[in-house]
Design a protein that fits this description.
Elements: E1 15-20, E2 23-24, H1 34-38, E3 44-49, E4 52-53, E5 66-70, E6 92-94, E7 102-103, E8 116-118, E9 126-127, E10 140-142, E11 164-166, E12 188-190, H2 202-205, E13 212-214, H3 234-259
Parallel strand pairs: 1-3, 2-4, 3-5, 5-6, 6-8, 7-9, 8-10, 10-11, 11-12, 12-13
Length: 264
């Protein structure tokens, strides 16, 4: 199915600055000419290409109007609160395909206008409960293909305007009833290819605007589960409950046969 979203696609015309072959050493700033400092860029996008940077350079002191920062496949390992100092106009941050392992507390607090955040294809295993504190305008969050197994119930609480979230290809086993209780505007919930064995249909009651639910490749759904569903559909709860019961029954049957191979 075609994704019913336009992740970080803006209609505005952005001035794009492409930084080639940058090898950023932590603790040292990138040097720009005086002429660069004098230019008042509006709607600015900065993209790193064929570069290496384990931390985010202090770009926001020079480019105060920076709105889109793309640091994909650059070897990024760390995101500190100090990384976004003066990032008051940043709206989009792409950092997929890096080596980020942890998301610290208040990691994006200095970028309060963020609307789109892509941290896909990293090595994130732990998200601090206060990581997303202050991101009241965030609309779309992608954490695809990481190593996340547990998410605290209050982690997404600050994201009151979140409409889409991608958590595919992680190691989630249980989805708490209250994990998205503060995300009433959520339209799309993507949980494909995890190890989820518990997904209560009560969660759907807490998400009145949910139109798209993706649960393919988990232990809580059977092979007949329809991947894209409408939350308001009265059959979806029955379908999920049936899938859940079939999966649990199959799970116990497999375990039983392994322990007692002589029993057919």
């Amino acid at each position: 199915m075609k994704k019913n979203t336009s992740f970080a696609q803006f209609d505005e015309k952005f001035t794009t600055c492409i930084l080639h072959n940058v090898n950023y050493i932590t603790g040292k700033g990138l040097q720009f000419s005086n002429a660069t400092n004098d230019i008042a860029y509006n709607n600015l996008r900065i993209t790193f290409v064929d570069s290496h940077a384990e931390t985010i350079p202090q770009l926001f002191y020079t480019f105060t109007n920076l709105e889109i920062l793309q640091m994909n496949n650059v070897g990024l390992r760390n995101i500190f609160t100090s990384s976004f100092q003066r990032a008051s106009n940043l709206r989009v941050f792409h950092a997929y395909g890096n080596k980020i392992t942890l998301l610290d507390a208040h990691a994006f607090a200095e970028a309060p206008k963020l609307e789109y955040l892509d941290l896909s294809r990293n090595k994130i295993s732990n998200i601090h409960v206060s990581t997303f504190r202050g991101l009241r305008y965030l609309k779309e969050l992608s954490l695809i293909d990481n190593k996340i197994s547990i998410i605290s119930e209050d982690t997404f609480a600050p994201l009151r305007n979140l409409t889409w979230i991608w958590l595919d290809k992680n190691d989630l086993k249980v989805i708490s009833l209250n994990l998205f209780v503060h995300n009433a505007k959520l339209i799309g919930l993507n949980l494909n290819n995890n190890n989820i064995s518990a997904f209560s249909t009560v969660l759907l009651d807490k998400l009145p605007n949910l139109n798209y639910l993706f649960l393919h490749g988990n232990n809580c759904t059977s092979s007949s589960f329809v991947n894209t569903v409408i939350a308001q559909n009265t059959n979806i709860k029955l379908q999920l409950s049936t899938c859940y019961q079939v999966s649990i029954c199959l799970f116990y049957r497999i375990n039983f046969n392994v322990k007692n191979p002589e029993i057919p």
